[in-house]
Amino acid sequence: MYSCGDGQSSDRVDGGGQVEVSDGMSDQPDLDDAASNESERDIYMRFMKCHKCYDIIPTSSKLVVFDTTLQVKKAFFALVANGVRAAPLWESKKQSFVGMLTITDFINILTRYYKSPMVQIYELEEHKIETWRELYLQETFKPLVHIPPDASIFEAVHSLIKNKIHRLPVIDPISGNALYILTHKRILKFLQLFVCEMPMPAFMKQTLEDLAVGTYSNIAYIHPDTPLITALSVFTHRRVSALPVVDHNGKVVDIYSKFDVINLAAEKTYNNLDVTVTQALRHRSQYFEGVMKCNKLETLETIVDRIVKAEVHRLVVVDEGSHIVGIVSLSDILQALVLTPAGLGRRESIPSQSASYQRPETECKPERDEEPGEDTKEEGETEEGET
């Protein structure tokens, strides 16, 4: 028997292996349906509160750390060479981690200093990371958002969404070592391993339209003939990390994400940003399986299953004619599954209350897996405020 929270709850496993979550009133055989539904509604939230960030960390994974004295150009080449999309930044003078270097920084440098294909981007070639941070972030320096390994996954979800970040470093408070970088994708994948052991909340059978999950107004998008430098500027000004490519009939034909931008460093083609988006995307034609789509009349259960299996960070919502309607991101999904049932919006703080979720008597926790190349599949997530 596994208990989490204030000790006021209990669980039992029936013959079919289903977890039954109660509120401590096990001597009452018949629970009111409304109370039962409410108990199921926040089951994912309670599950997250009863598992620690350490539970998600694989036994083997790649974590690249950069010293802030490293040249910016070498840092981005190192991201490509190691197949990762972000790295914690270590400042030797302070003997601490001070930030993250991400593809967003690469885009910001390109859009800030690019002039024409004939002019070399000196700042990218010569600047050190610390120089770039001092020049560009001098008025916006913020402490690195991180989390200890013994914090709950619920706290991690809340921190990711509230701070509008895509990556959350797990740092040991005693040693000061960075252990892992949590993402929405990794957390949702972890939850998906256990869903068969929990009762499914009724809202999972509701549609995106009913639940208002996703973004359906003021959608940022580009056209196939949009110059690449324009697309990068949209990333910067709209603070999104994926742009649906829409033809002039309004149909979605492709998608350009921040993940794709790192290819400019891989192929050393960042000095010519006047090419079109279509030309910039030719490098991935061999393995790209197409834009992952959905419609707003599909259930949340279907959406979660599709996005986890496809290992993407967003689905483009389209109508019957494949015209763009909206975007559903991983943060939208985690908000709906975990924070909304807890009564929390994207900006609200976590109330001080305990959780009550019980793990089945039969240990269902998977072995700590190895992820030598998980980051090589990662894309940026479509959400406001990536850092």
Automatic annotation (TrEMBL):
SMART domains: CBS. Residues 350-359 have a biased composition (Polar residues). Residues 1-35, 347-387 are annotated as: Disordered. Residues 369-387 have a biased composition (Acidic residues). PROSITE patterns: CBS. AMPK is a heterotrimer of an alpha catalytic subunit (PRKAA1 or PRKAA2), a beta (PRKAB1 or PRKAB2) and a gamma non-catalytic subunits (PRKAG1, PRKAG2 or PRKAG3). Interacts with FNIP1 and FNIP2. This is Protein kinase, AMP-activated, gamma 2 non-catalytic subunit. It comes from Nothobranchius kuhntae (Beira killifish).
